[in-house]
Amino acid sequence: MKSYQIAIIEGDGIGKEVVPESIKVLEAIAAQCGFAFKFDNYDYSCEHYIKHGKMMPDDGLDRLRDSDSIFLGAAGYPGVPDHISLWGLLIPIRRTFQQYVNLRPVRLLEGISSPLKNPGKVDFYIVRENNEGEYSNAGGKIYEGTENEVVFQESIFTKKGVDRVMKFAFELANTRRKKITSATKSNGIVHTMPFWDQRFQEIGKSYPQVEKDQFHIDILAAHFVQNPHWFDVVVASNLFGDILSDLGPAVVGGMGIAAGANINPERVYPSMFEPVHGSAPDIAGQNIANPIACFWTAKMMLDHLGEIEAANLLMEAIENNIKEGNVRTRDLGGKASTQEVTIDIINKILKE
Ligand code: NAD
Ligand code: IPM
Ligand code: MN
Known about the structure:
Elements: E1 3-11, H1 15-33, E2 36-42, H2 46-52, H3 60-64, E3 69-74, H4 82-87, H5 90-96, E4 101-107, E5 123-129, E6 139-142, E7 150-153, H6 159-175, E8 179-184, H7 192-204, E9 211-216, H8 217-226, E10 233-236, H9 238-251, E11 261-263, E12 271-273, H10 292-305, H11 308-323, H12 338-351
Parallel strand pairs: 1-2, 1-3, 3-12, 5-10, 8-9, 8-10
Antiparallel strand pairs: 4-5, 4-11, 6-7, 11-12
Helix pairs in contact: 1-10, 1-11, 1-12, 6-7, 8-9, 10-11, 11-12
């Protein structure tokens, strides 16, 4: 029987609640579709940091290298500064394993009420550059603690880095409704963003059949709210993509349903599957987190592993359950617990 080795990092907060539920769902799906998973648990987290002074052991990344995929809940928790926890775990995984595409779907599912009165049909992907750009540790401080203190931080955009994420986005648009939107800010940011636009034009020449559009990030954010039905594939730099990938889900149900994948398209390294949300300290430990974001993320992992039938089965179970009103966690206006949602979804899978 085919078996996949998955590195599990529950991480912090609600990561510890939604990941174990996702494993139950994945096991049910595998049994139904005739393959198997071997899950290896890694305790990399803020708790690990508090015990050992680091988010993961020195060979922490090497231990993940041979897995077929990495599945992560969330990292970061009060008590450890966020720039320490995230740069000690999440960001090194994304970079070491060249997961330069952060793919995040935004789709309004039947049965979920959008905060918008007339959202129309919303179904698009955000393709976020995931390895460089505004997220950089190139920078520093001088005259610290004095009146003359100076802090600076560089944005780094490489031709290779921009071109490869653009290509991924164009290819994706080509398989869909053939429309791509680029997030820019070349009116205010004079070096990196005109370069981003230039590469968008250049890479776009190979895709004459794809309709191209670009907006400055400020008005693009407004269009996400006023015209979310316009979009098919939105390509954005690391920071802009980060912001858009909370805003997009907010329009279709919120962080509780926002799925994501950190992909190494060449498959030289394992890809990492991780919901968009964080550790949600405000609701952690209460069994009320919505696990759908994590289940949808598991669906993206199944797609990546080539288990398309299983991926479709899982997505159907999620969609049917929502349609029938079973997934009513607090964030969606109901009372269902994290574990009750899991039971509903597994029952659905077993019946399908
Ligand atoms: P967050 O996504 O954790 O929470 C934002 C809000 O959304 C909270 O009110 C929370 O209760 C709600 N929410 C999030 N997921 C939910 C779910 N599944 N069901 C119901 N409600 C949900 O963002 P934050 O508060 O900015 O960050 C908290 C911590 O997580 C910080 O340390 C941050 O750095 C970290 N973080 C990590 C990741 C990651 O590991 N990928 C992503 C974002 C934030
Ligand atoms: C995300 C998160 C991370 C990011 C943080 C926690 C570093 O917000 O995955 O969207 O900005 O990439
Ligand atoms: Mn984010």
